[in-house]
TrEMBL record:
<protein>
    <submittedName>
        <fullName>FHA domain containing protein</fullName>
    </submittedName>
</protein>
<dbReference type="InterPro" id="IPR000253">
    <property type="entry name" value="FHA_dom"/>
</dbReference>
<dbReference type="InterPro" id="IPR008984">
    <property type="entry name" value="SMAD_FHA_dom_sf"/>
</dbReference>
<dbReference type="InterPro" id="IPR032030">
    <property type="entry name" value="YscD_cytoplasmic_dom"/>
</dbReference>
<dbReference type="Pfam" id="PF16697">
    <property type="entry name" value="Yop-YscD_cpl"/>
</dbReference>
<feature type="domain" description="FHA">
    <location>
        <begin position="109"/>
        <end position="158"/>
    </location>
</feature>
Length: 185
């Protein structure tokens, strides 16, 4: 707003008090020391309940007693975020003659031709979300996700979940992979 105006052009309100407050605020120093307790309060109150914190690493987040997420001062080194433990690989020679490997980490990974899958393979006979591979309690569990062409383990079609062994051959669509566990049975 123009500092020479005395009334708001939109509503007609006297704006001289507003201009004075803005001038005083701009003259104040912004280098005011803030206590740690006040810093946490500022951080707590600066986010709404709808905010997501995907860009803040898990090791820098904590939940206050009010249920709001606050950012702590835990040292964080870029590129060293915590990832689930590496537990195995799927290796395939179907798509690339020299081989292709996919890291398997603790938790679950969807396998299919859709780019949103954790393991996305360009195979016309593979369903968008063909299968789910889960690593839990030191076991790999494979599940067919109602795929059109089925999921095969060692040339046998699976109807339900199956526990995989080291070096099992998994076929989805035209793609065949071999499971390699880092910590064999």
């Amino acid at each position: 707003m123009d500092p020479t105006w005395t009334k708001c052009a939109y509503c007609g309100t006297d704006v001289s008090a507003i201009n004075t407050t803005q001038e005083q605020a701009s003259k104040q120093s912004t280098d005011v020391p803030i206590s740690e307790a006040r810093r946490k309060t500022i951080v707590e109150n600066s986010f709404s309940d709808d905010d997501t914190f995907e860009d803040i690493p898990d090791n820098r987040r904590e939940v206050s007693q009010k249920g709001k997420t606050i950012v702590s001062n835990v040292p964080y080194i870029q590129g060293q975020e915590q990832r689930p433990k590496l537990v195995g690989f799927l290796v395939s020679f179907t798509q690339q003659i020299h081989g292709q490997s996919f890291e398997l980490r603790e938790g679950r990974v969807y396998i299919g031709k859709d780019p949103s899958c954790g393991i996305s393979i360009a195979d016309s006979e593979m369903s968008s979300e063909h299968g789910l591979l889960l690593y839990r309690r030191e076991k790999f569990i494979l599940e067919d996700r109602l795929s059109t062409n089925g999921t095969f383990v060692n040339d046998t079609e699976i109807d339900d979940k199956i526990i995989l062994n080291n070096y099992d051959r998994i076929r989805m669509g035209k793609t065949e992979c071999i499971l390699i566990k880092i910590k064999p049975d």
